[in-house]
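Lecture notes, unit on protein representations.

Consider one protein chain, 302 amino acids long.
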Amino acid sequence: MKDDYFLAKWLNNELSEKDLEEHLSEKEINAFKKIIAATANLESPTSSPEELLNKFKQVKDKKTKVKKLNFSYYLYRVAAVFVLFFVSYYFLSNRDTIYTTTFAEKIKVELPDNSEVQLNAVSEIHFNKSGWSKNRALELKGEAFFKVSKGSTFIVNTELGKVSVLGTQFNVVVRNQYFEVHCYEGSVSVNYLTQTVKLSEGSSFKVVNSKVSLTKNSTKKVPSWTHNTSSFESIPYQYVIAELERQYNVNVEYDEKSLSNTNFTGNFTHSNLDLALQAVCIPLNLKYSMQNNKVILQNNDY
């Protein structure tokens, strides 16, 4: 109580610092000074007690505003998510399935109806899985051998013609104005320009540089390329060289002009480049040399 008494009198300027020193210790005086320093910046309220009470009541009675949710806005957002989902599902389910091969590559593909496709080098097929049971149709670039399960019409579309079957085995080639369909089992319908030709087992339909030809009574059971051999019967030499490039991933340089009207009958293996080059050079009295990935063909008289 003594401390409180002296502090009150000092704050009221009724005591001097000397009076404090006579009655209080140095520690107590320092404590008083700290109290005075802390309260120096305090300001007394400018409002009267009645005004402060009214302000308190106003705050108490003030209602909190509740923000109403815009259900239409959220409904649109939910709808947009569902639309995006269904559009994405439709796009993905209707997207074509694509199989391709590169140089010196062959693959076997099983279709949704268990039909089988073997793709030769540098070839491509694409089709839609989701509608396959109702529409067995695919696009082909290059060469493929088909073993088709029985069922609805099976269609192979190419840039040069269309092949239609029910259930059979056949080979299709379409490369740079060269179009050939060979039927190995059953029957095949070929549409080329305004022509429709039906092929039976052992028959083939061929278009080379717009010239159409038909052959029959072949005894082959499968195309030779499926056993790693390319076979040709009176085929322009440029197509033979192009096939050799595909099977070995090489670049062949030769005098195309002097060989433009030359046809080739024979075959070459896919497993040995030297043997393959001999097979396509010796019948035409050509020799070959190799520089890295390039093969140069020349007349043997040089």
